[in-house]
């Protein structure tokens, strides 16, 4: 990468002509909260810098939907939790500010399901959250959903067969979690499932199709 960074957000965005890894924000190992973003082009094996975001942010959610990049929340330059949202258009090479989330949050879990962006849990100045929000890019609107059954930050989230699964994380540093929940967008409700065998947060995950 061109900039040193840690705790940045990342995602992959593919099109017919290119596949790129995007890395946004983070800090440089010191006190500087980064506004910079960059992309790695798989076909050329090279990095290029993007225009700077409107705000520096650490520990934000970064996801791609329909050829656009979305960056949500995180911690700002004064380590305050953010609710701002930005969208990057690679064709125009510009960022734009979008409607903010209902709650500022960092350490959230984010996933894309059926073309919508889900933001789950995290933390802010009031503590650890079980709040869930969903963004619909077709109208640029946020919707507040039923909260999770358990507060959690730094959790793992995945989408499988049209449903959202979230597990682990911790409850504001009080306990590392084993619990697993599933959200069904058809009925708009969460249900508790069988817990993991081990407590874990900051875990890696993958979905595998048999």
Would you give an account of this structure?
The chain is mostly beta strands. The chain folds into two domains: 1-100, Lipocalin, CATH 2.40.128; 106-203. It has no helices and 18 strands. The protein has strands spanning 9-14, 19-24, 37-41, 46-49, 61-65, 68-72, 85-89, 94-98, 109-113, 116-120, 123-124, 127-128, 132-136, 141-145, 156-160, 163-167, 180-184, 189-193. Strand 11 (123-124) and strand 12 form a beta hairpin.
Number of domains: 2
Task: Tell how many strands the DSSP assignment holds.
Answer: 18
How many DSSP helices? 0
Sketch the major β-sheet: 4 strands, antiparallel
What shape does the CA trace take?
A: globular
Radius of gyration: 17 Å
Provide a brief overview of the structure.
This protein has 210 residues and is mostly beta strands.
Topology (elements, then pairings):
Blueprint: E1 9-14, E2 19-24, E3 37-41, E4 46-49, E5 61-65, E6 68-72, E7 85-89, E8 94-98, E9 109-113, E10 116-120, E11 123-124, E12 127-128, E13 132-136, E14 141-145, E15 156-160, E16 163-167, E17 180-184, E18 189-193
Antiparallel strand pairs: 1-2, 2-3, 3-4, 5-6, 6-7, 7-8, 9-10, 10-13, 11-12, 13-14, 15-16, 16-17, 17-18
Which features characterize this protein?
Lipocalin; 210 residues; mainly beta; globular
